[in-house]
Amino acid sequence: MPALEPKIAPSILSADLARLGEEVSDVLASGADMIHFDVMDNHYVPNLTFGAPVCKALRDYGITAPIDVHLMVKPVDELIHAFIDAGASDITFHPEASEHIDRSLSLIRDAGLRCGLVFNPATPLTWLDHVMDKVDMILLMSVNPGFGGQSFIPHTMEKLRQARERIDASGRDIRLEVDGGVNADNIGEIAAAGADTFVAGSSLFKARREDDPHRYDTVIGAMRRGLGR
Ligand SMILES: O=C(CO)[C@H](O)[C@H](O)COP(=O)(O)O
């Protein structure tokens, strides 16, 4: 079972991008722990989002919470440098998109950031075999990457259990993050399978409070109750 405090990480993919700074401030004020920042390049995935200047703009706006950058790009190293300079806190990338996984991880760690690998639903965990001592987090995609609003793929539950076993065997405090189709109804089951960090995009951002459009505390509260908190 996860030993680390659970964290809720809203994916800004589903935020109102015309009011991004405000949206990020609002979810953090409503109880989110960090921000999940989805970078898509229309090459590794068939969609295009935002890059390092937007991350820097959030820092300049005054956001001090961790910004967890998920690179869905190929190649990865140049953008790693850009996001280090832009104020990212964590950077994860897909191992099959990196020419040299060990080097890409080292670029992130040597800059003092947390680093990790991301696994698509059909990407095997064996990519971890020789870098388990170098990752601070493992991100399991529970949808195929590229779009928000998809349904959680059920076989991710078994993969989460396998990833949890690997983490426990390593004896290290590696975070196990899950991304795609997470909501207040399934978060408890996902946590029981071993996850401790929960990315939520559409289920969170669509649940603005009707009486106060700047508050997301109802849905974040429901997620925490789902986690037994
Ligand atoms: O990485 C992603 C897509 O590639 C998104 O972070 C993920 O899908 C979250 O969105 P939702 O909670 O709406 O499923």
From TrEMBL:
Q: Which residues bind substrate?
A: 11, 70, 146-149, 179-181, 201-202
Q: Which residues bind a divalent metal cation?
A: 36, 38, 70, 179
List, alphabetically, the Gene3D superfamilies matched: Aldolase class I
GO BP, sorted A to Z = pentose catabolic process; pentose-phosphate shunt
Reaction(s) the record says it catalyses:
D-ribulose 5-phosphate = D-xylulose 5-phosphate
What is the similarity comment for this entry?
Belongs to the ribulose-phosphate 3-epimerase family.
What this protein is reported to do is described as: Catalyzes the reversible epimerization of D-ribulose 5-phosphate to D-xylulose 5-phosphate.
Name this polypeptide is given:
Ribulose-phosphate 3-epimerase
